[in-house]
């Protein structure tokens, strides 16, 4: 694949999942981790997904981000169908178009905040998509921490560096797994507010999995996952 720019215009959803099933074989039994998912996430929208443990939330993120291939159904990110891409093309596509944010930031211990961001530019992706590390650090309120390593930053600061790093390649899709699990209430609100601002300003489609109902007020839409299916959250 030579052309990794998105094929759609701004009305193309950032993410479209159609008829997604993900099954695992357990002896004679077929387990449905995802049992028929149809959902779109617009550019500039934060979709929160809540639901009990084992419902399929992590599986949903893994399939949406091209880390797991679904058993059936199609995944489109920014108008590009990921079905049928080779492993190599999928890896490239992810690098340029999908950002991941994990529970604890997942930073490289030896690198300063600024170098965590600069590292993204050395991974050989599409340089035209790269944002400026210093501007991004400013956007997440961490200019004064640019030279700090993770060990001397707070949990909230580390999480904000993780968010900035995920945004470095101007992704179409941002996948966020329990971003506030390690944070206190104030930092949780700050981090999710920041995610929402960046999502809205830069037209990203964001899917955020969480057990933290306090932060749902910052999200544009909330769905509940139960037994591998998405339904309205009440
Ligand atoms: N590699 C695998 N092999 C077999 N079963 C799996 C595998 N990965 C996930 N599952 C099963 O699929 C279902 C969904 O798991 P998943 O991790 O997506 O749930 P979750 O909603 O993210 O849970 P949690 O909130 O605890 O992280 C569970 O029943 C899980 O045991």
TrEMBL record:
<dbReference type="InterPro" id="IPR015854">
    <property type="entry name" value="ABC_transpr_LolD-like"/>
</dbReference>
<keyword id="KW-0813">Transport</keyword>
<keyword id="KW-0067">ATP-binding</keyword>
<dbReference type="Pfam" id="PF00005">
    <property type="entry name" value="ABC_tran"/>
</dbReference>
<dbReference type="InterPro" id="IPR003439">
    <property type="entry name" value="ABC_transporter-like_ATP-bd"/>
</dbReference>
<dbReference type="GO" id="GO:0016887">
    <property type="term" value="F:ATP hydrolysis activity"/>
</dbReference>
<dbReference type="GO" id="GO:0005886">
    <property type="term" value="C:plasma membrane"/>
</dbReference>
<dbReference type="InterPro" id="IPR017871">
    <property type="entry name" value="ABC_transporter-like_CS"/>
</dbReference>
<dbReference type="InterPro" id="IPR017911">
    <property type="entry name" value="MacB-like_ATP-bd"/>
</dbReference>
<dbReference type="GO" id="GO:0022857">
    <property type="term" value="F:transmembrane transporter activity"/>
</dbReference>
<feature type="domain" description="ABC transporter">
    <location>
        <begin position="15"/>
        <end position="234"/>
    </location>
</feature>
<dbReference type="InterPro" id="IPR027417">
    <property type="entry name" value="P-loop_NTPase"/>
</dbReference>
<protein>
    <submittedName>
        <fullName>ABC transporter ATP-binding protein</fullName>
    </submittedName>
</protein>
<dbReference type="InterPro" id="IPR003593">
    <property type="entry name" value="AAA+_ATPase"/>
</dbReference>
<keyword id="KW-0547">Nucleotide-binding</keyword>
<dbReference type="GO" id="GO:0005524">
    <property type="term" value="F:ATP binding"/>
</dbReference>
